[in-house]
Amino acid sequence: MIIQIDFAGDLPLYSQLRDQIVIGIAAGLLKPGEALPSVRRLAADIGINIHTVNKAYALLRDEGYIVMDRRSGAAVAPRPLDSRGFFEHLADLLRPIAAEAICHELDAEQFGRFCADLHRQVRTVQDIREGHP
Amino acid sequence: MSALQNLFFAINLLLVLTMGVMLTVLPLITRKSLLFGVRIPEPALDHPEVRQLKAIYLVVLAVLSVLTLAAALAIHLVRPAFNLIGSLYLPWPLLIGQFLTTVALWRQAKRLKARENWQVAHLGTAETRSSLARTRFGGLPWAWYLGSLALIVLAALVSLAVYPSMPQTIVTHWNAAMEPDAWADKSLIHVLITPIIALVMLLIMLLSNLAVYRTKLQVSLENPALSYAQHRVYRLWMSHMLGFITVVMTMMFLAFQPMILNLWVPSSALMILIILVTSTLMIVPAIVVSVKAGQGGTRLKPAITDADIAAAGLADALRPASRSGRGDDRFWKLGMFYVNPEDPALFVEDRLGNNGGLNYARPLAWVLVVVLLVLVIATYALSTGLLLDLV
């Protein structure tokens, strides 16, 4: 998958990297079990500090999206992921966003549809790659 | 003037001509979004001043090349004994002129970008499979290098086997007519010097190939999927080109070995033929690959599936929109030298032409520069006048 970091972006670099790898996994651009590049190589190719990539990889490992092995390096975690506590996590992430939506006068149905569209958008990439759009 | 001197002159001309052409076409094989080391947005490519700056470069370099050719002719007429080592000095005015022209045009390009307020994104890009593959050594065309190594080892073994039966005094130098004109006591170092030089050249070539392999990839922001596909093919072409040159270079060095061992002395015509054929075999593939592939393969049209492009496009849409700004120009000193302490990359793509560059913020870059300089100077010093006045 192509990773692209915006040096002029709002989010910290490690967080942009983490988000893109999660999106890559969800969109099927990274398959379960697929090996990921080494921290050093990825940092050199993107042109960011090694510690930035380390931080993103450590975060992804703690969240269960990737597995890290001292010898064989990092790889996308096999499915199914451990989803215990996921709903609490999702609620914590979405609550302020739902609040923002309310402030901008979106009703529950509009907000729900928006979320569903984004969900579909990520899934579509996977469908196209597998040849049934 | 002897035939040999005329040949030296022809080789000098060929060398200057090759260098002149390669330097002159640099802006044409550089990524389109780079104007003398300054990153400009794609819509600015057709701006009249952008075309004008490129035209100035072409004219200045063409004139410089012609002047250097004229200088070569003048030197040949005044001092025909001028040999191949002389041709190493000949291209210097051309190289310095090219450097000064590029710096002047870089400043113009920078001013133009500021005046027109051209904004570009500053992005860092990687492709996970490409990054992963390039951490392994399996992708290098090892057959070329192992083949060269086998030839060198074979030559060294044959030399060692022949050594005891060689007379105590051996011929160490031949004049232009291939008549012996210098003798010395035999020594192991004299017999093994060519295999050693060939081995050093092999290591330099392997290092260059590794640099091509490990270079940070520049990616077109409009079509990253195509960029990575182009780069994959480019790396393959470059690696095989470098491997092929290594084999030819090894054979060229080892062709002198029968002379060193006093086994067989070729005629001067054969010597000339060997040098002409091997140098052609080294120069032509380099030019063909650079011109046909362009910087990072940007002139190639590799096969990528529609699904790849569609997926890459959609994946693009999943990213937050990038901000525009001044881009990454500030890391490129004089538009030519990459200095970025945050970047662990050692090898990067050059901003003009298709050569590799180094990240000079890394101490290893300076170590490499010094080591390469020492190796090249030592090789020339060792090979100068060793056998003939050819090199």
Q: Which chain pair has the greatest contact?
A: A-B, 41 and 43 residues
- Portion in beta strands of chain B: 5-15%
The rounded distance between the terminal residues' Cα atoms of chain B is: 19 Å
- Computed over alpha carbons, the radius of gyration of chain A is 17 Å
The overall number of domains of chain B is 2
Sheet/helix structural class of chain A: mainly alpha
Describe the structure.
The complex is a heterodimer of chains A (133) and B (391). Chain A has 133 residues and is mostly helical. Chain A contains 5 helices and 3 strands. Chain A has 2 domains: 13-76, Orthogonal Bundle (Arc Repressor Mutant, subunit A), CATH 1.10.10.10; 86-129. In chain A, α1 (13-26) packs across α3 and α2 packs across α3 (50-62). The longest helix of chain A is centred in the last third of the chain and has 22 residues, at 108-129. The two termini of chain A are 19 Å apart. The mean pLDDT of chain A is 90. Chain B folds into 2 domains: 1-120, no CATH class; 133-391, no CATH class. Chain B is built from 13 helices and 11 strands. Chain B has a two-stranded antiparallel sheet with strand order 1-2. In chain B, β5 (169-174) and β6 (180-185) form a beta hairpin. In chain B, α3 packs antiparallel against α5 (92-115) and α8 packs antiparallel against α13 (363-383). Chain B is globular. The chains are: A mainly alpha (133), B mainly alpha (391).
List the topology elements:
The complex is a heterodimer of chains A (133) and B (391).
Chain A: E1 2-6, H1 13-26, H2 39-46, H3 50-62, E2 66-69, E3 73-76, H4 86-103, H5 108-129
Antiparallel strand pairs in A: 2-3
Helix pairs in contact in A: 1-3, 2-3
Chain B: H1 3-24, H2 26-29, E1 34-35, E2 38-39, H3 48-78, H4 84-89, H5 92-115, E3 120-121, E4 123-127, H6 128-133, H7 142-162, E5 169-174, E6 180-185, H8 188-214, H9 224-254, H10 257-260, H11 268-293, H12 306-317, E7 324-325, E8 332-333, E9 337-338, E10 347-349, E11 356-358, H13 363-383
Helix pairs in contact in B: 1-3, 1-11, 3-5, 7-8, 7-9, 8-9, 8-13, 9-11
